Amino acid sequence: MNPKALLEAALFVSDQPLSLERLSKIVGVGSEEEIKNLIEQIKQELVREDRGVELIETPEGYELRVKQPYREKVAKLAPLSDLSDGMLRTLGIIAFKQPIKQSIIVRYQGNKTYGYVKTLEEKGLIKTEPYKRTKLITTTPDFERYFGKSKEEVKSMLGNEIKNK
To answer: Quick one: fold of 3-75?
Structure first.
């Protein structure tokens, strides 16, 4: 398997920056120096003006990003890229605790929860139903399709993240 192609694929699919250590494990290359060399090769290939993405280094690691001139034109192709951190936290709470009462989420996140819930429901990721004086919230099949995992798999992944913190 081509290490440079594997490195590029990992950077492409990751939703967060990847550290040298993590990239080294993914690619199976022994030294971080070799990974840096592969990263530099990819950067040089992407620096040409006719390419739409760039490889950048952040404090958390390396990531592929759409170049600035193209971002606005392609943003609508990633329908959930406009979800704020608060909405993502709300969605994570719902996925982990579902079914969950909206009033409990409000205790965690405050009054902004009402707006988050409304937007997430409009996007089809969650559904609400009246429950006493609040709402009972669960994820939808669209949530599972978007993330490519069942709600049980997502719950398990979130549980592992919580344990590791």
So the answer is: Arc Repressor Mutant, subunit A (1.10.10)
